[in-house]
Amino acid sequence: MFDSIINIIVVLLLLIGLFFMLAGTIGFVRFPDFYSRMHATGKCDTLGEGLMLFALIIYETGYEGLFKGDLQHALFVSIKIILLILFILLANPTSTHAIAKAAHDVGLQPWKKTDETQWIYDQDSETDKIINGGELK
Amino acid sequence: MNIKDIIITFIILFTFWVLLSAHFDLFHLGSGIICCTIIAFASHDLIFQDTGNYRLTKTVRFIAYLPWLIYQIVIANIDVAKRALSPSMPIDPQIISFRTKLRSEVARTALANSITLTPGTVTVDIIDDIFYVHAIAKEPADDLLEGTMERKIAHIFMED
Known about the structure:
The complex is a heterodimer of chains A (137) and B (160). Chain A has 137 residues and is mainly α. Chain A has helices spanning 2-30, 34-67, 71-105. Chain A has 3 helices and no strands. The longest helix of chain A has 35 residues, at 71-105. Chain B has a 3-stranded antiparallel beta sheet with strand order 1-3-2. In chain B, helix 1 (3-21) packs antiparallel against helix 2 (26-43), helix 3 (55-85) runs antiparallel to helix 6 (148-156) and helix 4 (105-117) runs antiparallel to helix 6 (148-156). The model of chain B has no long low-confidence stretch (mean pLDDT 82).
């Protein structure tokens, strides 16, 4: 009974994680340009992988640890997976930023919905000078 | 050479070693102590680059900030999934720029990574004080420019 409850929770978490990975991939294919594709891959991967690893933690502590009784082993494996989650939480946005910065540095222009920009935030809040009219330098 | 930094670095490294090895015999612990001592002496200045005031408070505040960040990540994912899967694909991307009040490198890094993780915005570049952020639509940009996150980060790193 207990092990099947654990298994159901684990499978549910894996499926939700899979859904976000799938949504990220679909976004990667559907979005029009480089920068908006970064949104899809950079964010959905973080939560998708996080949920999947969280499912593994529950499996380790719940099934291997509590059900089968090897608690010490399960604890160490869980801590290692938590470290993995923290690493992903740190590395994913950093790499997303690095790739976006590389594209910005070579002067890739972002895709716009229409030719005229409908909304631009180009005012510097301190000096009220225009910094960047929505365009790259 | 700062003895306190070396000791803290050693403790962090050795905790990590024990967690990863998960063996408690003399050989594993002994080689861990030797390696961690050498590395702590050689590179203790890599971990702590700030002036070192109120480290504990900053750490506690950062840990208290994490639940809010995770909540934002969940919202961000639902947001992106919605935009990616809806047939009309409601995106209207734009690069926006704003001036930050944060001074230290760590605080700026934390803000840049938080922006990337939260709904609809990706940090593209930081030049001097100005953040260039790619926003996928107007609403995420409005939320960002309200400055909630910047205030939270400033609170963590005691720059408010």
